[in-house]
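Dear support,

We are seeing what looks like truncated structure output for some complexes. This example has two components. We would appreciate it if you could run it in full and send us the complete token output so we can diff it against ours.
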Amino acid sequence: MTNLLRVENLSVCYESRGGRVTALDKVNVDIRSNELLAVVGESGCGKSTLALAIIGLLPNPPARVLNGEIEFKGTNLVQLQPARMREYRGTQIAMIFQEPLSSLNPVYKVGDQIAEAIIVKKSREDGHAVETEFMQKTHKVTLPSKVPKRPRSGKRISAELKQEIIASLKLVRIPDPEQVIDRYPFELSGGMRQRIMIAMALSQEPALLVADEPTTALDVTTQAQVLKLMRELMEKVKTSILLITHDLAVACQVADRVAVMYAGDVVEAANVFELFSKPLHPYTEGLLSCLPTGSKHKVDLRPIPGSVPDLRSPLVACKYASRCPHVMKKCTEKKPDLIEIREKHEVACYLHGEKNGTDTANN
Amino acid sequence: MEPILQTIDLSKYFPIQRGINPFSKAKKFVRAVDGVSVTIWKGTTIAVVGESGCGKTTLARAMALLTKPTAGDVIFNGKSIINGKTNLKQVYRDLQMIFQDPESSLDPNIRVGNSIGEPLEGLMGWSKAEVRGAVDKSLAAVGLPLDCVDRFPGQLSGGQKQRVAIARAISPQPKLVILDEPTSALDASVQAQILRLLLQLQKDYSLSYMLITHNIAVAEYLSDFMAVMYSGNLVEYGLTEEIMAKPRHPYTIALISSAPIANPWKRNLLQVEIRGEVPSAINPPPGCKFHPRCPYADGICSRQTPKLEEVSQGHFVACHFKEKTA
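Here is the complete output from our reference environment:
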């Protein structure tokens, strides 16, 4: 499998009054084509920052990319002009957010919103070259001139376009799509809204779909339906998915590969079967032993002692050192690199792999 | 075993008004809880599970007298607490509640020590010194340092705040604690700490718990009994072990198989067959409320509401076709 997206040494910080918070600290992650990569971690570990950095939506200020690259199909997205980035965002890389009600426009009908996505895509296909040339000449952030206005009501949508909208709604299994296109977002349930977001994202046929906690606001039975749908559509549309989640069990159920983040670092990345059967990093082990997987009479939960370090003070050491049961002297001196220990299993820990030890000696 | 709390056909309807005429007679109701009878046994934990809007929180609020039930009765410690003849102070002392979000259940402008201590002065009639002693004792019991007394909630982490909420609940030495989604706002590692703490406290203070949750894994871990609710009705009740191993109501089956489990070899989530979503509580479907989504539904299901019947010792199911799932 080839790499679709490669994040290399990416560091992102947030400047705040209390000091600089390092949200991502030299993160390395790959996403391969037609793969579902789940990034898991607890709140504040930087997983959403990673998603926003990839799609180029980091709020700047306060966020700032310090260094590193995001290579997508041979282009470094970090150094792209905002106008050039807009060619990728939405078309090549699409995103769905946690709360669909706040990502859909409440005053437009669902059908019109999907129509807009389809129209934008078509106009980009037609007027692509003109638009970019213009952008490069002026170096100004201007809206693409070719994007037509959003159709005001269902009546003005051509029959052909309507068929396309209905087809995209059918793809995400919305019952009677002919009715749904004339509804407003508030008239739909949470699961339906999230499906519409997926329909809009996939109408662009993106190479990568970034899903930031797409099912956290949904009920379990709806969550199961949405995740199942995402997995099926991934095979159908041939896209890759980056799933950001705090729920290890969800990641375990749908992902091909899982990357575990802790305090701004990717500490372990492996095939889902490898990661859950033979976790190597002590944090992954700790996280897995925190999951209730049976009755209190059979399962003994072992919570991780201590708490997440303050990210305002830059740590040179392994950030997990203060909570780690296997902490050694060199853990507090230098951060271990993310190294491939076995095939498709990377870990950043001195306990594993000779290479990490020799690296420190050479430096 | 003796019961600590029993509800008998407990119902709570919320009136809704359509239009602006305040004298309009045509009132509609949201049947949040519709004739639920459950028993909580002393020293055990019952988990009430279900999806949002199924009425599990309303049931808990009605039990804790935070909302007046429309019909039915709540028997606490052998006495009805609805009829207005019982000593409510005693009830408030013996029945405590822990809420989902410690952010909003703790006053941000009151120091932790006062948050825990103030209710004790009124409820227990203790002197300042006695209250101070009890606060220190309950802080120690939940594993917080004693210097937390003088801090504000804003200076604590999410897990610490939930510990404060737990300390406040256990300080009047209650008999029953209602836990309303106690860990849903917390991260996995903090959730594990709180779950362990709750088990430890149950042992030390011989507490009974009623756990409200949508997280099946948490319910399975913490509870002895399980009650499954759907759209205001109790659809299945029994020992947790039995329900998890052999669910009988089609909704329980769907709910358990939709719950993600941390085992990549058992990808139950991608095999789930459930369709549709939870019905509106204002216009619920007639008969069994689950029938539009049920794979076994037949003509009778849309006409007649099934009654809760015993299928094996202590295992109750409300379904017309319960023999099909055996």
